[in-house]
């Protein structure tokens, strides 16, 4: 079974993970520096570009151009008969079920799940997926834990 992050989930997740911390850093920057200084204005404009511009461009590209047959699944979890697969923009992480040990959920607000394997671990934030997908992923992992000797 494959669980893919929807476009709306992607936008919400990016907004929470990129913009929220950025606003805090921007507020801190304005409190610490002298805004009237020309050097400071250059630093602020560069900071704004890095904090908001690049993530916004990536999100807009994904929204408008990531579609059709060449669509990239931004984030997904796939549970096959042979392996656990976690796909993300940077690549694909795989743990064969023969190497699967267990899993754990960490945190209370931003729940992170870690899937432990014999050779490597995979971790990701559960809130990348909707509640029904989260429940299904956890249920499938629970079944695998019960099958593991």
UniProtKB/TrEMBL annotation:
<keyword id="KW-1133">Transmembrane helix</keyword>
<keyword id="KW-0812">Transmembrane</keyword>
<protein>
    <recommendedName>
        <fullName>PH domain-containing protein</fullName>
    </recommendedName>
</protein>
<feature type="transmembrane region" description="Helical">
    <location>
        <begin position="44"/>
        <end position="65"/>
    </location>
</feature>
<keyword id="KW-0472">Membrane</keyword>
């Amino acid at each position: 079974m494959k669980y893919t992050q929807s476009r709306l989930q992607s936008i919400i997740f990016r907004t929470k993970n990129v913009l929220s911390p950025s606003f805090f850093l921007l507020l801190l920057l304005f409190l610490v520096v002298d805004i009237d200084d020309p050097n400071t204005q250059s630093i602020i404009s560069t900071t704004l570009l890095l904090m908001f511009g690049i993530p916004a461009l990536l999100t807009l590209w994904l929204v408008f151009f990531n579609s059709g047959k060449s669509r990239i699944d931004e984030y997904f979890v796939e549970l096959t008969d042979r392996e656990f697969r976690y796909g993300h923009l940077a690549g694909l992480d795989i743990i064969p079920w023969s190497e699967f040990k267990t899993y754990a959920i960490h945190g209370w607000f931003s729940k992170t799940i870690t899937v432990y394997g014999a050779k490597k671990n995979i971790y990701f934030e559960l809130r990348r997926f909707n509640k029904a997908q989260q429940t299904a992923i956890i249920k499938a992992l629970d079944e695998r834990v019960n099958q593991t000797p």
